[in-house]
Amino acid sequence: MTAYDELMAYQRETTALSMIAGRLGWDQETVMPRGAASQRGEEMAAIEAVLHARRSDPRVGDWLAGAEAPDQAGAAQLREIRRAYDRTMKVPADLAKRIARVTSEAQGTWAQARADEDVAAFLPVLEEVVALKREEGAALASGGDVYDAMIEDYEPHTTAAQIGAIFEAMRPRLVDLRARLLAQPMSAGLEGEFDEAKQMELTHLLARTFGYDLDRGRLDKAVHPFSSGSGNDVRITTRTSLTDPFNCFYSTIHEVGHATYEQNIDSAYLLTPLGQGASMGVHESQSRIYENQIGRSRAFTGWLFGQMRDTFGGFGIADADAFYAAANRVHNGHIRTEADEVQYNLHIMLRFDLERALMQGDLQVRDLEAAWNDRFEDDFGYAVDRPSNGCLQDVHWSVGLFGYFPTYSLGNVYAGCLYEALRRAVPDLDAQLAAGDTSGATAWLRDALQRFGGLYAPRDVIKRASGMEPSPEPLLNYLESKFGALYGL
């Protein structure tokens, strides 16, 4: 075997073990007994120690030094393995193990604190998570910006300054559009109660409608919807609310965007660095275009309206146009995952600034709740009423995902570019969606982007698929056109 062959064989085993670790995380969020949290932390720490040892094995460096790529895909494999190896070598094994143990335990603490509306119960473990992640970031940054080093895990070759510049370009138009929309009469929302078992039946139909292969996946319930896994085992979760079925349906469509991306990657890349999405920003471009540009379009909501009438009977919405307005209702609210398209990115900007300050030491964990509440009231014009609507609403910080939040908005920006290209590529898109047929859209996304996995760098894969350099302009134009028409601006 050549050095390249030996390296790839070793890499497949390492990736397989990391998939097992991911399955432990899925289990923890869905069916694990509450009393198992401490033991699960030890289990996660143990497997992380094994993974860190494999990823930092000196043989990896030797193989990289002697490996010759057989083709373009091989060169990309070496690029990604080298990048991961260099980062792994900077993080002490004991630190990686401690982070795995503490974040596993912190996840359970966060869930209970959120249920109890008790910020004080969460802050001690969050302080520990932040301290560990800052230590890791400092090791990775090698004297550079700690937060930049964290972003690199989720959006390679992107800095906080670059993201900040994009956000500053977006903010004025978003704030202006929001103000004009909220000055108009608000569209009616859904009212009444919607049987949660029937919600799950319909949400399974939606998952299949958007191309999710349930022979290689699962759909379960969790506190916070997420997608987990890759290749032939990609699992998603959703959640139900008795009075808000949109929460269930659009969470599902969003996670299906992530899951089908993973399922549609070229099978030749299975259990290799290329066998996963190019970045979290690119991943979010798929979940957001599924959820919003496709799932909340006038054409598709017309079909969904019929499905809801068949499932729930009459539910107070007169016709498909009123249902479209309800699905795209611009409204005040505290929850990021329930925010309308216009305001969603403002929620991300808040989190981006706060976590950047935490990582740079400009904000202390003990002051986080007050900082969140002050910023939220400044940005949205009303107060946070309880912690689960404020700094306890998201799971991300409890599990150490600092640098992840900005990729949601990068995904929206990427989705705006892709949607312009999709409309050109599938001229009869609206007619297809009106019939509940997403195959034209999902097939184009599969062929133009998803099948490549990690073959190309994030911005390159968006440029190849959309034909343009990533820019917020298409997203902002789409939002102004769509909501301007909806609200008669």
Automatic annotation (TrEMBL):
<keyword id="KW-0479">Metal-binding</keyword>
<protein>
    <recommendedName>
        <fullName>Metal-dependent carboxypeptidase</fullName>
        <ecNumber>3.4.17.19</ecNumber>
    </recommendedName>
</protein>
<keyword id="KW-0482">Metalloprotease</keyword>
<dbReference type="Pfam" id="PF02074">
    <property type="entry name" value="Peptidase_M32"/>
</dbReference>
<dbReference type="GO" id="GO:0004180">
    <property type="term" value="F:carboxypeptidase activity"/>
</dbReference>
<keyword id="KW-0645">Protease</keyword>
<comment type="similarity">
    <text>Belongs to the peptidase M32 family.</text>
</comment>
<keyword id="KW-0121">Carboxypeptidase</keyword>
<comment type="function">
    <text>Broad specificity carboxypetidase that releases amino acids sequentially from the C-terminus, including neutral, aromatic, polar and basic residues.</text>
</comment>
<keyword id="KW-0378">Hydrolase</keyword>
<dbReference type="InterPro" id="IPR001333">
    <property type="entry name" value="Peptidase_M32_Taq"/>
</dbReference>
